[in-house]
Specification:
Blueprint lengths: L3 E6 L4 H12 L4 E8 L3 H11 L3 E4 L5 H7 L6 E4 L1 H9 L4 E4 L7 H9 L3 E4 L2 H18 L2 E4 L2 H9 L8 E8 L9 H4 L4 H4 L9 H9 L1 H13 L7 E5 L5 E7 L4 E5 L5 H9 L13 H4 L14 H11 L3 H17 L5 H14 L8 H23 L1
Parallel strand pairs: 1-2, 1-5, 2-3, 3-4, 5-6, 6-7, 8-9
Antiparallel strand pairs: 8-10, 10-11
Helix pairs in contact: 4-5, 5-6, 6-11, 6-15, 10-15, 11-14, 15-16, 15-17, 16-17
Length: 387
Amino acid sequence: MSRRTISILGATGSIGTSTLDLVERNSDLHEVVALTANSDVAGLADAARRTGARFAAIGDAALGDALAEALSGSGIACGAGEGALVDAAAMDADWTMASIVGIAGLAPTMAAIRRGRTVALANKESLVSAGPVMLAATRESGARLLPVDSEHNAIFQCFDHEDPSRVSKIILTASGGPFRTMSLADMARVTPAQAVRHPNWSMGAKISVDSATLMNKGLELIEAHHLFPVGADRFEILVHPQSVIHSMVEYIDGSVLAQLGTPDMRTPIGHTLAWPARMETPSPRLDLAAIARLDFEAPDPVRFPALDLAREALEAGGARPAILNAANEVAVAAFLAGRIGFLDIAFIVGKVLDRYDPPAPLAIEDVFAIDSGSRATAWQMMEALAA
Ligand code: NAD
Ligand code: MG
């Protein structure tokens, strides 16, 4: 049997290394075409050598020589800069993991989609920002998008793809993050170190902060709307602190289907890697007797205003989701750099949405322009806040 060709965009991150783990455990089944990273030359070169990748691309153009040096004698071709990331994504591969964080993943993810074939999508920010444009490109190329995000992967597994009209509601579960029970006054003082310490999942810094503000759930609401178009009013967000149920689908007859598992991303990644078959993964198994109970509560819109901001952006559509995402990326980076407080993140996102109102994007270039405009507005808001 011929091996499947695969590429991993964002190979050095949390999702990327979990994907590499599964690929390397099954190296007889997979042949690695291209790997990318932003600045971790050593991690990228090491993964490329281990897997015998054909091409490695580093996003930071200044690191091209260092990557070439690290790969010398290996026969692995390499490139640097944003163009090289797109080149890597455009190489023919049966399966591509899109796991770059943020809008930086949009151009490479679009290149992978335009090639047709299967794209496992972790890079939610690109779908949130470019939604209809990205879905049109997917239809045009015949690519198949498989959701990696644990909630969307759960919904995918429970969803009636044949007749979505039988679905009455989709329930997106949320852990509630590290500040689920904290008072607003205490939340005003939390540090980046506290915000990235997620109670259940180990993830990159940006998504960890998003999980703490619940903006992650807001982005996931928009992501789910694009992947499972049952109507914006049919999505409910439910806080479930144990992160055992990854999401649920309710049917018109009252049945509710759920997908459960331990919080290990190798389960949803493995699902997309083997789909439509199944593969073994090393994820710990669920021990429900040890967990003993599953709790649920409604999210608190007062302490977590990001949820309403995201729902408004979803309902208004047009440029709003891209503005929400870009302003959030800027604010999260500023929070991680110690420039603004935790509660300022959603405050700034709200202000940018109030101030900036460009027309709906019709093409990918429009999405990039909205992203830049939103970032500039977010910087102005932060300067005003600091003054
Ligand atoms: P991470 O920070 O651990 O890794 C990000 C990857 O993207 C790295 O390989 C990095 O080199 C690359 N990257 C970062 N900035 C880049 C840039 N400017 N240009 C090119 N490459 C760049 O992040 P992560 O936690 O692995 O998350 C990746 C994506 O998956 C995010 O969109 C996140 O929302 C999504 N996701 C992650 C998890 C998780 O458990 N980690 C779960 C669901 C969804
Ligand atoms: Mg998720």
